Amino acid sequence: MRLYHLLVAFPIVSGFQLPFQLPFFNQPITQEPLPPVPSRRIAIIGAGAGGSSAAFWLGKAQERFGLDVEVDIYEKNTYVGGRSTVVYPYENTSLPPVELGASIFVKANKNMWRAVDEFNLTRRDFREDSSGMGIWNGESLVFTAMGGWWGIWDSVKILLRYGFHSPRKTQQFVDKMIGKFLTLYSVETPKWDNITHLSSALEWTELLTQSTSDYLASEGVSNQFIYELVEASTRVNYGQNADGMHALAGAVSLAPTGASAVEGGNFQVFEQFLNHSKANVYLETLVKSISRSASGQWQITSDRGSETYMAVILAAPWHSTNIELPADISSRIPAQPYVHLHVTLLSTTLPSVPAQSFSLPASTKIPAMLLTTFDGARNGGTRPEFNSLSYHGAIREGEFVVKIFSESRIEDAWLSKMFEGQVGWVHRKEWDAYPVLPPTTTFPDVKLAPGFYYVNAFEPFISTMETETLASRNVVDLLLKEELQSGICGSAELSGEAVEDYVYGWDC
Ligand SMILES: Cc1cc2nc3c(=O)[nH]c(=O)nc-3n(C[C@H](O)[C@H](O)[C@H](O)COP(=O)(O)OP(=O)(O)OC[C@H]3O[C@@H](n4cnc5c(N)ncnc54)[C@H](O)[C@@H]3O)c2cc1C
Fold this sequence. Notes:
This is Prenylcysteine lyase-domain-containing protein. The chain has a 7-stranded mixed sheet with strand order 7-6-15-16-17-14-18, with helices on one face. The protein has a 6-stranded mixed sheet with strand order 9-2-1-13-20-19, covered by helices on one side. A hairpin with a 4-residue loop joins strand 6 and strand 7. The radius of gyration is 23 Å and the shape is globular. It contains 15 helices and 20 strands. Among the domains are: 1-84 and 266-336 and 444-508, FAD/NAD(P)-binding domain, CATH 3.50.50.60; 154-256, no CATH class. The longest helix has 20 residues, at 465-484. The chain is an alpha/beta fold. Bound molecules: flavin-adenine dinucleotide (FAD). Flavin-adenine dinucleotide is lined by residues 45-51, 74-77, 82-84, 101-105, 286-287, 315-316, 321-323, 341, 343, 431, 433-434, 456, 463-466, 468.
């Protein structure tokens, strides 16, 4: 995530003259001109990271080789971005917006990173200030360090408390995962219609079938490190404990070194994906049902009425959409519980939470970023009232914004007690934020039926903004191959070597 790529447009071979084969696709892609079929219509449901990027990838194919398709995107909300959206303190748009959902991405997230550059957005480092980080167990602060989460890994404090082996082994575990993850951007990227197969191609089965704690323990990482540092990160990133969540998600939680965000809101990436697509965007348009028409096409019934499509891309977690599906399709999507997360945003004039609010000696400095471990509760102690509580800078002179993630509602009385009555603006939002991620080897089908694809099948594997853009890229490639004997890269020559920091889908 560190180097700016060189924006070298790879020469696109025009026309359809040369025979070529996309890697991992079994059949050669025919180079015959596509027959003119005016009714080539594709519907995308959901305009979050997954749906907006699906429209963008289709747009790339349209731009590269004149793919003749019409794309409609349906979104029930009034806005683009889904779980990535901002709110303004006091609903005052002259104050800096605050992320209400997805906040950060990292440099290994090459689609997000690239999009920010291509769309002339501004990336900012998502660093906490020097007021430090701490881990709260519901009764005491078990660990504190200056410099924030990302700066502490090599610190003397870490070495003193956890020794050398556990942090080093954990870092190796994360680095190995990232190394494999990066292959998804290469010319040789696997393409998948089955996530279990993708997982074995990436050699991640061992991570998926064990909890984060079991996997790290088998690597000799100490329980103290697992249930403090590692669990603090699984709880803030996925609202789940280290002993309940698979080790792939554990590694993803530990990866945000060099975390960044888009100035003004990450949702702008998704707006720009749509602006750079040729899709018709229908906001405030609820999809109610999807069925097969007699001709084998797909019928979508929505607030717009009934429309017929060659293919459908579902880019929302199906169980939360209330969309009626044919029984043979819905039966292919296993039940998928999501973590119901309470997000509480507030502003306060207190620059930090007073120690007395935690019943700690007045001399204790409470860090700006408080993460939590469940280990106190696991051993009979008090459950932490929140998963994380962190200061996110000033909204104006002397007034700070604080974000709290919790399993249940944070009441006004609790806020008032914690912040000594110095609370200004409060905004609450409940999300079905991310899948519950127990160890598993079963995933929903990526292709639910011929011409019907499911982006969010990827979420129980990894759930982030970036991975939704990867899942949609894969789905668009599958769709184009199966329905139109083509691909996102069309007839462009595939060679990663000519482009620095090549990113599949952008540079082909
Ligand atoms: C509080 C929180 C913090 C997070 N933090 C991070 C983070 O820091 N970094 C990160 O990468 N990820 C984070 N995530 C996860 C990230 O937000 C998601 O993985 C990602 O945004 C999912 O994108 P999506 O497009 O698949 O789904 P969504 O964003 O949920 O989009 C689906 C869209 O479909 C629409 N829709 C649903 N049903 C219908 C229907 N019937 N008709 C029409 N439209 C419909 C919805 O309105 C929605 O806009 C966080 C999530 C939450 C909630």
